[in-house]
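Why does residue order matter? Because the sequence determines the fold. Keep that principle in mind as you read this record.
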Amino acid sequence: MALQVILFMTHRGRTQQLVLRLLQARRLFPEDRTGSRTRHQRIAERLGLGYQVSVMVPALLWVLTPALVDAMSAPAANGTAATRGTPLPVWAPFDLQRSPNYELVYAVQAVTNVVMNLTGLFLDVFFVTLMLHLTAELDVLNLNVASLRPSPVAPADSLESRDGDSLAKQASTDAPYTARGDSFRVRTSTSRFHMYRLLVKNIQHHQMIIM
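Structure:
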């Protein structure tokens, strides 16, 4: 657990960049009413709750068991007080059975146990949530790529280059059009141009995920 915390703090800069990149991807590449991100967020919430129950319930039982045993145990036959236990066996240079020594040691062990379990729990939940959000981005990207379809082609007469020339003469071909020496190329098919822009957007989304 200490090693896990050390590694997390060592690479916290990269982790922060990844989280910011995911937030940017959610803003720049919205999903098309598929609910993929919401679905993965709900899965992360359920897993986080499951992690908390599976970790904290045994931890609390471990902490409370000595106190419950002491409270329900019968006094010794000779009238002496029974030895009280702590969550973790410990040796102390003072009388551990006297108050407030016993209560202080018990409280320190209980708080330490809960804090250590919560630290490991939060790290695990964080990385699980991060992986689920990455999965959601890949799912959104996959759905966007699978939904690439040619859109209806607009009339060629409505297409114009930047210098105002009509592209109607090139409507029957897919030859590139260059306006007055410009370096860009325009195709007369709005359907292909629309698909090209969507493809570029999906490539940018993929690059943002893997970088």
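Residues 2-72+81-147 form one domain.
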